[in-house]
Specification:
Helix content: over 70%
Distance between the termini: 50 Å
Largest sheet: none
Number of strands: 0
Strand content: under 5%
Oligomer: single chain
Length: 73
Amino acid sequence: MAKFQDRFAAWFHETFDDVWFRSMIGPAQVKGAVQGCDEGAREQWKRDIENRKRITREQRDRKRAERAARSAG
């Protein structure tokens, strides 16, 4: 019974503490996220976003190629 209570308590805190925290800080918003910054900071933010998208595309392409190689081989 103690193991169940421990697992339940861990699940409860992992789930609802996070929900409580997110409700306190509000919803995630990116619209206008770089307003009020200087031009250099905005440009760096744009480059950072593009790099993240590029890395994601490369990872997706790599996984796709690996799947294709496994199915062909």
